[in-house]
Structures are given as C-alpha cells and as structure tokens.
C-alpha cells in the first residue's frame, strides 16, 4: 500500500514536494566546505516573518509537504518559532537543520510547541578538537553534544549530517560510533560536494582514493551491524565514482530553494549561474515561479541536453548530472556534468581527484568578506589637464 | 496463572505526519527525510492508529465502513509492515 513519490511526466510540471528554506546566511560556524554562495546574503536583505509566512502558505497550496529549515544557522532567526508555526499551519512537515549552537531547552520546547517535527545536526569530526578546527569555532563540538541530548530528550528524531573530506574520512568509524552514542536515528555521511566555499577549498578537502576506499568499507560493515537501528546514508563522492549524481531529482522537478533574501532557485547552488536571473518571491507568486519562470524551465526535461547526454540511456535517471557543477568547471551550464565518465570534460574532475596532495593548502574559512568581492568598475582616472596650451 | 499480554494499540510514531495531499489527491506519510504515498485506503487505516484502538478494533471499524472488503485478511499484515518500518509503535 505504499510507493515512493515520483515527479509527474505531464506537460505542466508536477508540483514540488519539498522547499528548502535558507532562512539566513549568518552562521556561528565557518566550515570551509559550506555550499552557500561566496557572496553571502546580508541580514538586512532577509525576508521578514510575514514574507516567510506567505511563502510557506503558497508552498502548502502548491503541494509542498516537507521543508528543511536551513541556513546558515536558522536558530539565529529570532522568529524561527513563528516560521515553524507558519509551516505547520500550511500542512508542511518541518525539519531543523542546525549546527546546534544556540539550541537550549527553552528554545527547543518553543520550537516543538510550534510544530517542529525533527532535527538534523551537523557534525564535523568525532574528536572535539578536530571538529572545532574544521568548524572554525571553539567549543562548537560541545554545543552539538548538548543539542543532541536535548533533541533526544524532547523525543524528536535526530539525524546527524557529516560532510566528509580528507580531514575526517579516516574517522568515519568513530563518527558512526558517535551517532550511536548520541542516539541518532540516521547518520548521513555526505562526501563534499564542490560548490561555493567547498569549491574554493577543493584542494584542501579532496581526499585520496585510499581514504575513500577504507571509509566505504567501514560504512558497509557498520551498515550491516546497525541494520534496523540506524539508517546509514553514504552520499557518493562524485569526483571519484565517474557517475554524475541525479542532482535535485532533476531541475525544477521535485524541489525548490528559497534563499534568505527571497530568491527562488531550482537548487541551492544555482545562485552561481551568472545568467540565470532567478526570480524572487518579492516580485512573483511562487506558483508562477515554479511553472512559468525562465529560470525553472531552463533545464527542465531533456530537451536542453548536449553532448553524450542527448542519447544516453541514463538521461532520465541522472538528468545530465549537476548544472552548477557543469558551469563551475566548464563555464557552460548546459554541458554534461564533468563528474560523468562519459563527459568530454571528465579530466576536469579526474585530475584534481588523482592529484593526492601531501601538503594541502590551509582552509579559507567561510566568513563574509573572506573572499574579495568582484571589484566595482574603477572610476575613470582624471587625466592631467595640460596647463599650457 | 499465565500473564496476559496487552493487545497492541497501534499509534503513529512521533516523527511522522499523516496528511491528505489535496493537490495530488492522496494520503501521505511524511518522514524526516522522505515522503511515502499511502495507496488505496492506506491513509484511512493509518488514520485509525491513534493509540486507543486495538488491531481488532481497527479491523472491526473498517469492516463496518467497507462491507465485503477483505479487511480481516489484509489490514493486520499492513499494520505489521508499518511497524516493521518503525512508522507505527
């Protein structure tokens, strides 16, 4: 009597089932793999409580049933309880995606009372010092441990989300053990996706093939042991596997992202596409954006495909991979994702993946202003006026 | 004296939300990381799992509501399968 949700295949796009709400780009952590854009939205441009309430009402009417409340750190929004209540009122299941910093018993009680259903907590490493170094914040690990205990005590399901890279892949076993000790229902072991800050820090984060092989073995072994108790999810390292990921389940197919300032994107990384001209909830109804905006129709279906994707048997399975990765590596968002072994650009992921650096560069931590913004056009330099003449 | 085992009174696990999806005209179980479609009368059955009714009670109510349907054969197995998934407690 059950099936999984599939996108429709009619002419009108099937309605979205999920809306990723990036409530703020402010964050107490500074993780170098963050997939937020390098140009972080300022707090002064963030949507108001009323604007989020209206977005969630529209989303519920369109058929959205699930909303991860993310960021940045969503707990930095003082109106988070009201946003949760708005989602609940719209019939939308909410999950808090948090660093754990700033969660205390009273806050969690208020969120739960407003209708919060589950929590996903990020973890950087099983060793507190290593974790704090990766997060770029002292005592952040201790805050996570407290947050996990609070979530368990409140009876909410707890997922741990670990972004994997060269500095924590060797600790996968300890990370899984940590999840067991903290009472997690699910542990997502997600190999770094190289967008935004992650791409900027790629040389520091890329693991070796040996590290990956060992971690994969560990996960398989622990998955058997933990079957029925903890859901262990391994998100593939697409630079290494030669297979493009079915990014977002297809462009504008099942999910949309609303960024802190109300920009609506088919995928959280799509802000990086320079000519996408994404619509905003401040200008258009969400349903129009989903169905009719140029941005959401740009890579829908398979018509836009180029190169090996056009005749590929997998084109309805991986949708050509990731548009943002194609753009980031080739400069053309319509090319086959270079992660695919069939891509003519596959060397663009193979070469860095095989480089196996012994001396990785230091992290560029995620902070506003850490990367110089593109310089504004310089004013014309006044030329000296000849005094004689 | 043999101990009596309290009969199971199925209840939806706290992490889950059962809701009707008016846009797609179907019943859904929404979980932390996924959405499951309840086909046929699956949503009606789960809707009765409020922790007060026994399996027998649920079957009885459904038999009254859907005369002639093979509820006594199918419903207990369906409830068991949801319990196996951890969706009913």
TrEMBL record, chain B:
Pathway: Cofactor biosynthesis; pyrroloquinoline quinone biosynthesis
A biological-process GO annotation: pyrroloquinoline quinone biosynthetic process
GO molecular function annotation: quinone binding
Subunit composition and interactions: Monomer. Interacts with PqqE.
Source organism (scientific name): Streptomyces mexicanus
Keyword Transferase: no
Full protein name: Pyrroloquinoline quinone biosynthesis peptide chaperone PqqD
Keyword terms: PQQ biosynthesis
InterPro entries assigned to the protein according to its UniProt record, in alphabetical order: PQQD (IPR008792), PqqD_bac (IPR022479), PqqD_sf (IPR041881)
A matching Pfam family: PqqD
């Amino acid at each position: 009597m059950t099936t999984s949700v599939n996108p429709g295949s009619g002419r009108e796009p099937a309605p979205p089932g999920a809306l990723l709400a990036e409530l703020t780009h402010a964050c107490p952590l500074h993780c170098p793999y963050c997939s937020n854009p390098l140009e972080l939205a300022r707090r002064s441009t963030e949507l108001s409580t009323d604007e989020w309430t209206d977005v969630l009402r529209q989303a519920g009417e369109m058929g959205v049933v699930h909303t991860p409340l993310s960021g940045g750190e969503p707990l930095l929004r003082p109106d988070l309880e009201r946003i949760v209540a708005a989602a609940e009122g719209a019939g939308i299941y909410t999950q808090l995606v948090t660093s754990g910093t700033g969660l205390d018993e009273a806050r969690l009680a208020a969120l739960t009372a407003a209708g919060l259903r589950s929590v996903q907590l990020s973890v950087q490493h099983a060793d507190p010092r290593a974790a704090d170094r990766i997060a770029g914040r002292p005592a952040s690990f201790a805050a996570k441990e407290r947050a996990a205990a609070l979530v368990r005590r409140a009876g909410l399901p707890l997922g741990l989300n670990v972004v994997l890279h060269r500095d924590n892949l060797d600790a996968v076993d300890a990370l899984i053990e940590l999840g067991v000790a903290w009472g997690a229902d699910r542990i997502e072991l997600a190999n770094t996706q190289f967008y935004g800050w992650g791409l900027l820090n790629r040389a520091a984060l890329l693991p070796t093939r040996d590290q990956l092989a060992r971690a994969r073995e560990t996960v398989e072994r622990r998955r058997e042991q933990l079957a029925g108790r903890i859901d262990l999810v391994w998100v593939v390292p697409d630079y290494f596997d030669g297979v493009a990921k079915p990014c977002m389940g297809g462009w504008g197919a099942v999910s949309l992202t609303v960024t802190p300032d109300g920009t609506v994107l088919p995928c959280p990384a799509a802000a990086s596409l320079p000519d996408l001209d994404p619509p905003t909830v401040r200008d258009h109804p969400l349903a129009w954006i989903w169905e009719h905006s140029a941005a959401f129709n740009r890579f829908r279906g398979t018509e836009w495909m180029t190169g090996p994707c056009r005749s590929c048997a997998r084109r309805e399975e991986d949708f050509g991979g990731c548009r943002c990765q194609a753009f980031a590596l080739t400069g053309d968002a319509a090319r086959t994702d270079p992660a695919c072994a069939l891509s003519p650009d596959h060397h663009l992921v193979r070469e860095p993946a095989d480089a196996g650096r012994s001396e990785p560069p230091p992290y560029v931590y995620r902070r506003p202003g850490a990367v110089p913004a593109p310089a504004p056009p310089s004013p014309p330099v006044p030329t000296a006026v000849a005094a004689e003449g | 004296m043999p101990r009596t085992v309290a009969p199971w009174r199925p209840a939806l696990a706290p992490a889950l939300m059962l809701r009707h999806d008016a846009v797609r005209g179907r019943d859904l179980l929404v979980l932390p990381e996924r959405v499951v479609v309840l086909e046929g009368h699956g949503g009606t059955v789960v809707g009765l799992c409020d922790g007060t009714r026994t399996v027998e009670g649920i079957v009885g109510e459904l038999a009254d509501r859907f005369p002639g349907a093979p509820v006594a054969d199918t419903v207990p197995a369906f409830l068991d399968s949801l319990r196996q998934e951890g969706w009913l407690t």
